[in-house]
Amino acid sequence: MQVVEPLLNALTTIIAPGLFDAGSQSISKIKKEEERTHSGEKYIKKVIGWPSVYSGISVISNRTTLFHTDRGGYESAMDLLAACGTHDNCNIEVQELGASFQYRPGAVLFICGFFLQHGVFNWTGDRVCYAHYFKDKVHERNGVQRAGWENISKYLGFMSSRFAKQEMDIIT
Question: Sign of the C-alpha dihedral, residues 117, 121, 123, 129?
Fold first, then answer.
């Protein structure tokens, strides 16, 4: 994880800069609490080496995931799903969109898991998913404001003026 997480953090910076900032602030505040007193003993928090801006990561290994939403986060928080393993013939289904996406090893999917029901039902081989998510309670505890919805206007500066005009014409 120490090798892959910086890449996933970088992708989050590009896709959802507000979430990256909120996650970074929250994790930084936790890391600054280097020592605590617990039952009269001092201990170093294990989170000091946490490599991700996401406050939670679940590992799903060779398990069917029925359609579900992820309610521990908040509405505008995007989950990041990273597929690993040797699996093949795998799709992730997004029920509300009526969509099915190929879900091969190395695939990374950003999804609004709070609203969109998603699931993985069939594959061959060994499948591992590292599901990254933001826990609303962690941000709340650290006094970090929720990130808002991302907006295409944040990205227009990276596009050619011709392409940006086409995108804005489509939206409006």
Answer: positive
